[in-house]
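User: Is it possible to get a 3D structure for a protein together with its bound compound? The compound here is iron/sulfur cluster. I've pasted both below.
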Amino acid sequence: MESLLCRSDKEIMEILNLEKPFQARIIRDNLIKGVTDFSNMTSLPKAMRERLSSERKNALTARIIRKEEADSTVKLALSYPDGSVIECVRLSDGKGRYTACLSSQVGCAMGCAFCKTGTMGLIRDLSAGEIVEEFILLSSLGERISHIVFMGMGEALHNFTAAMDAIMELHRESGFDISFRKMTISTCGLVPGIKKLTELDIPVRLAISLVSADDETRSSIMRVNKAYPLHELKDALLRFQHRQDRRLTLEYCLLGGINTDKKSAEKLYEFCKGLDALVNIIPWNPIPEMDFTTPSEAEIRSFERELKAQGINYTIRRSKGRSISGACGQLASETKKQ
Ligand code: SF4
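Assistant: Yes, that's possible. Here is the predicted structure of the complex:
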């Protein structure tokens, strides 16, 4: 069963066996408004509603199979008809701003050692429509979502076309109308993807999961660094920033005893030179089966002192949703690789 999102009228007509393009447009308009049950699409003829309901039950392919809530964070597990399961999260800043954290793939090929999704391997890419369905289902929780981050399962730049098609659909004025400026793509440092994004020239935000500014340390934790070492990454970021003039976020997952010393802060300073970047320090969220340790409070404070001494622009993020595994690097699902 195929998703109806990110489709032309003609494609929707073919998938649903419709006769007229305006019927496809009615269905699309309903989906954008969050009406996903064909029987509630009252501007369609009754006989058509009944046929579609009996054939597909629901206009979305994704089903919510689990919902967990903690610290005003809501995590949904969604299943697709092929048995794939992904997770997505709705975050709240406590002041009425809601952000959808979307997955772009089932699993991830990048294999970053500190990340739970990385342990799954890549099972498959999500289609653009499936990504947009995540947004619709998170919106169905009842609050208007104004921001989007691609920080769920998968590396969005590794599923470039689908992720960009989803972004365009979520941005479309007659659709979900989310400003590009309120969207953030997170990447582990996939340089070819950053270059393609630069060429695309859309003012989305870019967040880079840096973790270490030392090639040896970074390569030992993040395989991507072996293919695209730090100097190549920095070059790509400088070009992106030259085109977009938008502040970058460098996500720095703080791993106890690994990237928290003075030398790490000095290397970080060197990497930041010439970039307009905010370093986001995220103490590692514990994942039981992994060997890393969450840094102690003393270790975090000592690293902060080093950052201050270097004059690095930083913030410390205490991940919300830790208790429901909805925090950074903690999303994974029970879908198994075939
Ligand atoms: S950190 Fe991101 S890119 Fe790395 S394995 Fe996890 S999901 Fe993939």
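The first strand starts at residue 63 and ends at 70. The mean pLDDT is 92.
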